[in-house]
Design a protein that fits this description.
The chain contains 16 helices and 25 strands. It is an alpha/beta fold. Its cofactor is Ca(2+).
């Protein structure tokens, strides 16, 4: 158990930053056979280059926390809705207790970067990192973009730290150029730059998707929310900034019943910001903010801008934003994120640690929604492949993955990423739904995916021809990045009704969604597929499928399903 970790041993390990390594017996901890597709090793990293490294300690009682997460998230459980406080979540990891009890300065060269103290950070030159971890940190270049990163294909840790040190990062995880790019398939593809929002505001969901047609399609109410404690968080990465002037134009033309002065709060971390020059407006940030404020009428919305500082490589921002929210006494009740990457580009250990962070935030009562990706069965974006490519974080079982549909008579959008994780097994809440789908699928695509993996997406919403305001003009965009804020807005409005009735917000959604009541409250999508890897991908069918999940929202039915 982590509580038995000899802190003096760990402190001695950290002390190797400024001295020669003191351990002789090393054991291989993580490795990958080769760099991901598109990356080429160009040479050794300069010995004097400083690396910002993170150490993840083995979590103490994640099985216990997982049990509690399902208890507070499963309807009819005696603990349903009794979400945990920051202190209660912390109690499931003895790292918290150990950090509090440690003598001052014991690990002064490493700083804690998570509320539980299970992530530590420190800096070290390449030459020392190679010694400490028996590694070969090298420079890798992505051929298509020219982006460079410093990684090693393998590293070792002292035998004494086995079972206590989960991973060192960044080491064997690579950040692909599309890792944090918006899932927007075809911006500007059907509208000339001279057309403005007004020119398309009266279109139906069969031509251009707007708040009005979504309200009609899904029964989303236009009445203002009333509960200030119910908040909706929108994640922002890679210098994607939400523009207030574009939001005002969007509301004037597409939600004229709302005040055009309605705006969002701003939180920043890792040096994040939100400049308002028109040319700095972000296509993704505008989309996410406009379709949360524009649909979740009156729900307080916060744009959380994550900068580039202190991220220490791939998925640094993903981890930092969750630790940032875990450190708050009242994190948002809903969080929507429209970014991700292919699962295989990261290590299993890192995926597990980030997924555990989502579990902790879900136990606090936050509904976490992620866009599933835009590459069909080929991953986060379209790419060549021989086997189907699952995406992350959608493969994590402790969040809700959102796929995409298109048209008024809804069908699966071909871009909708979906499939089965190679890292996470099928969770109990979806075992029946996944089993039924696989039985019906038979031998189709046999051998191209993990039949024992967590299936995704869980749900879906409109994801093509979605109208936004961008740089003062109307622009239609595509992608599951449209679907996630749309579905998140529905959940935020349900939470408003629940809180007004004296009940708890929904929190982690999946146990409810996969219940008979939750499934029956969704519009089942039974046509379309998500082609890729020279196949037709998976077909959408009756019931759950790895294209549109359980289906799209029906607000009235969902309201009844949650007991209102």
């Amino acid at each position: 158990m982590l509580s038995k970790l000899n802190f003096l041993v760990f402190a001695s390990f950290i002390a190797a930053v400024s001295a020669n390594p003191v351990f002789r017996d090393m054991v291989l901890h993580e490795q990958r056979e080769k760099a991901p597709n598109g990356f080429v090793k160009v040479g050794a990293a300069p010995a004097e280059l400083m690396l910002s490294l993170r150490l993840a300690l083995v979590n103490d009682d994640m099985d216990g926390l997982e049990e509690v997460l399902y208890a507070v998230s499963t309807p009819n459980n005696a603990r349903y809705g009794q979400h945990l406080t920051k202190e209660e979540v912390c109690s499931y990891d003895s790292t918290c207790r150990r950090i509090r009890q440690a003598k001052p300065g014991l690990c002064h060269q490493a700083k804690s970067i998570s509320p539980a103290g299970d992530w530590l950070a420190f800096s070290v030159p390449v030459s020392k990192a190679n010694e400490m971890f028996d590694a070969d940190f090298s420079i890798f270049t992505h051929k298509e973009t020219g982006n460079e990163s410093v990684r090693t294909l393998a590293y070792s840790i002292p035998v004494e730290l086995q079972g206590h040190l989960e991973l060192v990062h960044p080491t064997v995880t690579f950040e692909t150029p599309s890792a944090h790019l918006p899932f927007v398939a075809s911006p500007l593809r059907s509208v000339s730059r001279s057309q403005n929002v007004t020119a398309l505001s009266d279109a139906s969901c069969d031509y251009q998707v707007t708040p009005a047609c979504l309200q009609d399609l899904y029964g989303i109410p236009t009445t203002l929310a009333t509960e200030s404690s119910n908040t909706l968080g929108v994640s922002g990465f890679i210098n994607q900034f939400a523009n207030e002037a574009d939001l005002e134009l969007f509301l004037e033309e597409l939600r004229s019943d709302l005040s055009s002065s309605t705006t969002f709060a701003l939180q920043t971390l890792d040096g994040g910001s939100d400049p308002q020059d028109e040319y700095q407006a972000g296509l993704e940030a505008n989309l996410d903010v406009q379709y949360t404020i524009g649909l979740a009428s009156g729900v307080p919305t916060t744009f959380i801008s994550v900068g580039q500082e202190n991220q220490d490589g791939a998925l640094g921002g993903f981890l930092d934003i969750i630790n940032f929210l875990l450190n708050e006494s009242n994190p948002p009740t809903v969080l929507t994120t429209s970014y991700g990457q292919d699962e295989y580009t990261m290590s299993r250990a890192l995926a597990r640690q980030v997924c555990n962070a989502y579990m902790q935030l879900g136990a606090r009562g936050t509904s976490i929604l992620f866009a599933s990706g835009d590459g069909g069965v080929s991953g986060s974006q379209r790419s060549s492949c021989s086997d189907f490519v699952p995406t992350f974080p959608s493969g994590c079982p402790f969040l809700t993955s959102v796929g995409a549909t298109t048209g008024v008579s809804e069908t699966a959008a071909g871009l909708s990423a979906g499939g089965f994780s190679n890292y996470f097994k099928t969770p109990k809440y979806q075992s029946s739904a996944v089993g039924s789908y696989l039985d019906a699928l038979g031998s189709t695509n046999s051998g191209m995916f993990n039949t024992n993996g967590r299936g995704f997406p869980d749900v879906a919403a409109q994801g093509q021809n979605v109208m936004i305001a961008y740089e003062g003009e109307g622009t239609p965009v595509d992608g599951t990045s449209c679907a996630s804020p749309i579905f998140a807005s529905v959940i935020a409005l349900l939470n408003d009704r629940l809180i007004a009735a004296g009940k708890s917000p929904l929190g982690f959604l999946n146990p409810f969604l996969y219940s008979s009541e939750g499934t029956a409250a969704l519009n089942d999508i039974t046509s379309g597929s998500n082609p890729g890897c020279d196949t037709n991908g998976f077909p959408a069918t009756a019931g759950w499928d790895p294209v549109t999940g359980l289906g799209t929202p029906n607000f009235a039915s969902l309201l009844s399903a949650v007991g209102l």
